[in-house]
Amino acid sequence: MILLLAIAVAIVIALARGGRFASLVNVPVRWGVLPILAFAVQALFIYQAPEQQDSSIWSWQEWLFLSSHVLLLVTVWVNRSLPGMLWVGAGLLLNLVVMVANGGWMPVAPQAVIRAGYSGLASSLEPGTRLFSSKNIVLPAESTALQPLSDVFVLARPFPVPSVFSVGDVFVALGVLLLIQGAMLGQARGSCTSQSSRGDV
Hints:
By secondary structure, this protein is mostly helical. The protein has 7 helices and 4 strands. The chain has one domain (2-197). Helix 1 runs parallel beside helix 6, helix 3 packs antiparallel against helix 4 (85-101) and helix 4 packs antiparallel against helix 6 (167-184). It is globular and about 50 Å long.
């Protein structure tokens, strides 16, 4: 949800600065099929993974889910000249690190689940329980490796759509905001052209 919020804010700010919405389709993203494949894998296995996870055993769902993040990181690297992409890459890397450290999924404390009103998405709040239709697994803070990097932030009511998110998510959202700003104001194309003229990958 924080990503959708960042997109909406970025578009509004860019329009206020004289940007053109139509310019978004002209962003010179290279290897654009990789993020499409990555998001397809994530959508499939977020819904297909079992409700209860054994953190000591990695299933094929976890391996594929984490592999999708590698695809996204590759996309970031080949498009690193675009505005905000390094922020996106840093956020993805932080999220990947904390998920690897906690069995392949993003940990969230039971208290955060309750504050966000997401209790109905879990069969229980016992450690190891997955939240339905999300990348999250319920883990108490004291049992979470690299806990500050997990989903520790909560947007609760009266926010229209409550959400839990991580430091990495904030970085990704900031990067996307900068990317949209650059695209709508005509800066993204210039940045990519400049790098190509220097012979960079």
